[in-house]
Batch of 2 targets.
Target 1
Amino acid sequence: MDLMRKLELLADAAKYDVACTSSGSDRGAVRGRLGATQAAGCCHSFTPDGRCISLLKVLMTNVCAYDCAYCSSRCSNEVERAAFQPRELADLTIEFYRRNYIEGLFLSSGVLSTPDYTTELMIECLRILREEYGFRGYIHAKTVPGTSPELVDVMGRLVDRLSVNLELPSQESLALLAPQKSRQQILAPMRQIAESVAESKETRALARRRNTFYSGGIQRAVGDRPFAPAGQSTQMIVGASPESDFQILSLSAALYRSLSLKRVFFSAYTPVNDDARLPRTDAVQLNREHRLYQADWLLRFYQFDVSEIIDEGSPFLDPDVDPKANWALNHLECFPVEVNTAPYEMLLRVPGIGVRGAQSIVRARRTAQLREQELRKLGIAYKRARFFITCNGSYAGGGVAFEHDALRMQLASPIRGGRHGRRADHVLPGQLSLFEGESFASKAPAVPALPPREKALAEERDALLPEWSMR
Amino acid sequence: MSSAQAYPLQDVAYLYDGTLEGLLSAVFLAYERHEDPIDVVREDEYEPRLLQSAIPVETDFDRANRVRRGVERACGRAAFTAIVRASTCEGYDTGAIVYRFVRYAMSRPESMRSMPILEELANPAVADLLRLVKHAGNESERMRQFVRFSHLENGVWFARVNPNANVVPLIMGYFAARLNDQPFIIYDEAHHLAGVYDGRSWQLVAGDAVSVPPATDHDRQMQEAWKRFYDALAVDARYNPELRRHFMPVRLWRNLTELEPRAAR
């Protein structure tokens, strides 16, 4: 099989892996060696769906011994199989890198015979890149579940970021949809990576400090690389199993806290297989994914606690209002805040003021009184923020009653990008149609009988959001 | 000229040659002549206002350097770096914004001196300059993202770009560091400026046109591989062309290997 076809197959098989970040690692250039990384990462292209392409994202092989319900490469599917030679892939990475197509390599893999064998193939490719070619660009590798800890350790020292896919948000769903993977198999390497990253950071920090008491014993060996300096990330599929947003967000908050993950990615379930265990739907819950990411940002950058975003009583995020606006609407007693004096933490909570905006306000107000004109120039969304702030004591949100429902009307905003693709909320079956002849019956033939699990979920959702009812 | 000196408040415009040195010479001239020009414009873009007198500025490296030293002494290196970045922007008011920023920088009240000038986000003179700095930064980032090299038969790596700010000088250092073992040229077809890296150091070459040898066969294969990779990554169920255009403006598509045939359509 020629290289082109291989690349096509193995990129196609890898495209449902969400993570394509090249951030978190800052490695300067060295004369005579190829490549460097910058902390913010760099996106080199964007797919027609607007996702970034920053790394050469491929599978080592799409041959797989496992049979996960949602995966296109599962062993029970009849698809064309291919595998890269380690050197072939390393060469391709270098060629792409020299043309500034990519920031580095993202290497994942199906399970070829055993997890250890597969990982050894991946390690060989990474070793060629790092040691033979002296490549200093970004490398992100996925560990194959069930790999022995020794190999994870070797891999960790060749890559910038290491990740283990959580796959699904609960153990039960995992057992149902990915029967060969177990919770233990996934969590053990995550713990190992978290510990190794922390340890490597500490050792290197100590070795850097000249006059430390310990420094004699821990001189850094030449060529000693840090263990995954950009940390670890994970991803889970949303919408293939019945977990609520509450469960998903609580889980990701716990992961950030206990395993110090850099990112938790959510992937709206995209149907690729026909399988009785999966939801029978053609729609992709992109809007739900979007709200989850918004909540995720609140956890990571806005100093929110998961309990402030969502609670067990209403376990799904509001589809009409973003989670930050929702918090503000439910805590009107905290507003309006005075932009010229409010603490940074409080500014972060104002809808329409982001991290950049809050930082700019704090800097700008040291030398000037901020009014509407200045705020607009600082690049905050004044249209939204005006209901929640005062400038020098004057409130500009007049004309709208300062109470939950009226403000909600102002802040409700549909998620952009709903015009294309199989967005779950694109067409609501049962909504009024202006053209009787073109009933939705032809497009979405009767709501199919749901499996019991799905049914419970649908009932829960209907009770929660009657206007979004599917029947 | 003499009439302008006699009436210092008269409406004048300074015309410079489009270079940073020319712009700084214009700033110097305003101090020398005790004038406050309304417009500081590139001479090829100038549109006279009613009753406005236009004064061509002679580019003078010594004078430009004196302005640089003055700004650095009063407000630090960072302030001058910001001026350099801002001056790469296109736009009729770029020169005037830089001029007003220097005026403000040199006349800041003593009480403000303890705070870096670029922190004064609410000051109009600073805010306008920072808007240009941000634009130049964004455009540089786009170039870091979307420069596409191809390997020519003479061994040089060549990329053609069309940024909307003259940012090639700002990105050469970045590419010269990470691709330090490959001689390359980045040619800006919009500003007719080429950044040339010979394997040791880089310099800028101005030129209206560029003729390059064809790419190697192997290079064409790699371009084909990259296109196939790009196409394979699309997920139809998530199709969202607005989002792609937002991140990757259509004006840049014609120099993007993976979108070439589509840009022509």
Note: Residues 147-264 of chain B form one domain.
Target 2
Amino acid sequence: MPDSRSELLLELFSEEIPARMQAKAAADLEGLMSKGLREAGVGFESAQAFVTPRRLVLHVAGLALQTEAVREELKGPRTDAPEKALEGFLRKTGLSKDQLEIRDDKKGQVYFAVVETPGRASADVVAELVPQVVRGFPWPKSMRWGSGDLRWVRPLRSVLCVIGAPGVAEVVPFDIDGIQSGNRAWGHRVMAPKAVREAGFEVSGFEDYKQRLRAAKVMLDAGERGKKIERDAKKLAREAGLELVADPGLLREVTGLVEWPVALMGEIELRFQALPPEVLQTSMKEHQKFFSLRDPASGKITRFITVANIASKDKGAKIVAGNERVLRARLSDAEFFYNNDLQAGLEAGLPKLEAVTFHNKLGSQAARINRIRDLARLLAPMVGADPALADRAAALAKADLVTEMVFEFPELQGLMGRYYAQAAGEDAAVAAAIEAHYAPLGPSDAVPNAPVSIAVSLADKIDTLTGFWAIDEKPTGSKDPFALRRAALGVIRILLENSIRLPLEAQFEAGLAKHPGEGKLEDVAADLMRFTADRLKVYLRESGVRHDVIDAVFALGGQDDLTDVVARVRALQKLLGTEDGANLLAAFKRANNILTAEEKKDGVEYSLAPDVKFAEEPAEKALFAALDAADKAVGAALRKENYPQAMSAMAKLRGPLDTFFEAVVVNADSPVLRRNRLCLLHRIRESFGKVADFASVEG
Amino acid sequence: MAQPQALRAGKPARPVCFQQVIQALGRYWGEQGCAVLQPYDMEAGAGTFHPATTLRALGAKPWAAAYPQPSRRPTDGRYGENPNRLQHYYQYQVIIKPSPPDLQELYLGSLAAIGLDIADHDIRFVEDDWESPTLGAWGLGWEVWCDGMEVSQFTYFQQVGGHDCRPVSGELTYGLERLAMYVLGVDHVMDMPFNDPAAPIPLRYGDIFNQTEREYSRWNFDSADTEMLLRHFEDAEKECARILAEPALDPRTGKEIIMAHPAYDQCIKASHLFNLLDARGVISVTERQAYIGRVRALAKACADAFVLTEAAGATGESAGEAA
């Protein structure tokens, strides 16, 4: 029985754990310990893990101090079964024959084993479990140290493990590679009181531990540290009339570097504020792990926040001064790169791109740029862009790859190109496209929406996709080293979100024509189109669109205008969601099934036009009339690409179809009537087939 | 886990020049029981190349050494104009095997010894795993930041020359110029006082190294005879293999003498020649990996030889005594 008053506290105290590994380590400790306790029959109410740079901690609350005795009954072989069966049973249970019970069963006498496992002290379970968890801990990278064989992420210095009622919890004794478990904890390396720095402190329970730890200047809870950093940083920003540039990833990392976070604000020299704010931000974040503070009026980054792991005597004066000096050196470098790049000009990089390999089978970046230019000009009219501007933007799109700034900060590619293009007096649409052509980089990244940007972005992605398709380097399973799925998704989102109409397969063919490849161009383009269709399905599934509905539209053949495909798909799915739609589908399936079965039986296709003069029943005549009306209305709606209207015209067939199947026997005795009715079913199939392949729809 | 003396001590005298920083580190690590060695007398890319680190990290014998090492990085030359980039600079190297349990505290003590009071500064251990592809070596550890500046590399060696390190050595590398510039509050390396500014003939770093930086930058980038460098690389490679192929038994003395150190000298040479060729820009991206692989093969062969020597603790009774 869990005992609400008892608890387990475990602290694995080590040298600094890499920040990026901390969250998972805490989750793993919680998971592995909980599983181990549960499997050993130790009841508990809750388990929670904590992590700081130097300690991984687990608190288990409401812990049973004893495991429950377990009585298990196992049924064995019959007493008259062969000796071998009994031997096997004894091996399995670990009992001897005289320990078995013999009980009456319906079919005779049967051996029973009654195995009783007595309850154990939970402390004994923990003493076995912790060393096991430590030895098998799933660190992404682990190491040995000193003369030992134990592996941990960094040297493990001490292990605290106590169990019992808070305040009187006692040490669970065990040894891991010479590290003896105890009840001693250590505080902040520098800020803990002298006595604690020298001898640590003794712990008798979790609350006690947390409080003493705080007194020794360690905030155990990463969530609390993160909140404090954010709150203090925002306060400093507000007091300076600035705003904090939010960066959750950086906040997580910084939280994992400190036990006692102290946010400090520093200045950025005025001369560096001429640099693009993104350059300041990237340099400060990548090299210094600084947060940026922005002046809301000018949009410029004017100060920074650094998070120290110490509240120093001089209130951080030396620390801030030191950080400012380091930043000055860093930004001097950035300024140097920026000025060199500006002086050289963006175009100066173009010849260098001839020496930069894009892929050994796909040539240099320069060759790639030429292909992208051709594609961008081709695409420009289809997306409403000026071909000359699209060409210019494509020509300069990759030029920043050989600038000094992008060499230093690869993540600034595109953005620096934009700044340098602006400085060189390029058209604003060209400068914008240089930055935007990489987008979208992820599923939530915004897509380009300016025409020139769209043309270059599509051209870039189509060149990448067709290039790798031409050399047969397609994604397989989880492997997609050239991020081709992302490129295809980019194409899809750009087309759909901008409602662009174009025949995609033809663009693939145009792209492939520039790549010498093995396969027949049309076949490779068709294969790439299928891949894109699959990505479209994955993408639409996330917004709740059924894959079979998409299949039903693609099955029409020749569907490579994705915007059009999606309009059809959405209209069809909407129809299928109504009662009319569901019944219409059922009626179609009924017609289709009968027709398919009869065609198979007779070995013929009933594809001739049915003749209304052989229609005997009123329901039959009515269906002829309804089909004529529907064909006309659907045809008109489709020509206008008004899919909802086409769907509602289709829906009008529901009544006549239902009545037809109620009143008319298709397989009539008269061969003439039967043939005409089967041909009528075929006409139904054809009418539906103009909208979608209903046979692909499930349900 | 008591703190070492230096951590508790009051403020030590703050160094006023570059050489006092080097001296303070030597004195401190000497007091902690390290043998304070001199730099190795060959061109090397880093303090790690000194046989006192690379070879002595191997084998079971305990070891503790500290030394400065001039380090040559031909591609980092900036003709003396960059405030903190040099093709020739100094590292301070400490290696202790097995790594002591209080190595972090000992390290912090060394910062105090050069005038950085850790109660006033923000010291952080930031993940940084070290790898030397040319030495076939790697380890886990951190770069140590002081107020946002990387001042040292702190590594627990896991493998050297392809051999698992048992026991594990703890290795500390200080970038001396950068650290000293920080302690002394200097922004350009060439402005840093080398000796005491109050000395009768005060010398700045630039008085000593401006000329050499300029000359070597020109030679490294544009003038070095690449055909000769290539020939010397191949000679070093051949000599290393030849030395290691010699039978262990020395005919003159009748004793077993494995020549791991002379062979390793050739490996250091090859590594530096590769760096020079790289700076001359005659090694293509694809060739680079092949050259690094060739140097690594030498380092591994030297490591294979060293572990069989007495210094590595391989031969019977005498090694046992030393340990």
Note: Residues 317-344 of chain A form the longest helix (28 residues).
